[in-house]
Amino acid sequence: MQNPFMEEISVERPLNITYQVRESSRARNVRFRLSLDDGLIVIVPRGFDVRRIPALLDEKRAWIEHVSRRLEQQRRDLEADPPSRLPEHVTLQAIERSFRVRYMASSVSNVQVEERPHGDLIVFGRVESNDVCRIALRQWTLDKAKQHLVPWLVAEADRGDFRFDKTMVRCQKTRWGSCSTRGTISLNAKLLFLPHDLVRYVLVHELCHTVHPSHSRAFWDLLRAQEPHADELRHVLRGAERCVPNWLEYCPTRGSSAAGTA
Ligand SMILES: [Zn+2]
Predict the structure, then answer these.
(1) CA within 20 to 30 Å of 110's CA: 1, 46, 52, 192, which one?
(2) Beta partners for residue 23, in sequence order
């Protein structure tokens, strides 16, 4: 039996959200995508009856509300600490190092980053461009990550008797680490901003994938044997992106900056 009042309450009021509908010839099922940039997008298979969407949204209400709250928090964080604001301090929790950043204009045509004694990090050159400074700091972070994470991974591999082919360190958007079937372990340079025990968890997690590629029961058993606090750390890791500073998380890439000047 239809109850228009119920429909209004369950769809409009609790969600209080507008959405866009996109038809996709490849979509087999209805999918929902929620992001800060685009809001809620409902992807439907071609020919789908859009009148069914409100009921589907209602079913997904808990998820939509959960993600909306997270995005709202993210928006507030971005407002409080805009990515374009250059850092005065850089703290690399993973290796327990803290740096005070100083910006010095000089005649150097690009921007360079140099570590000095007593925890000073000097950014010098064309420092009037925030974007160029951020790209230089990102590169410094990447170098620092290679310098520390690669030997750390090797040490953990030796300790647990794991073998891997090679390591790559990159600034990735969504993953802390991954392990290919050929045994290449990729690590996210942003791990440097996480506490030591979380980084170790990621390294050991990826090393366990060299033995069990999927998240099978055997994989978790092996991981728990290597790291008794694995379940707890896995849970904490879910909120760990908050440790990554916005200047790095939303850093312009070399590519986009080059496109602007080409
Ligand atoms: Zn995994």
Answers:
(1) 192
(2) 44
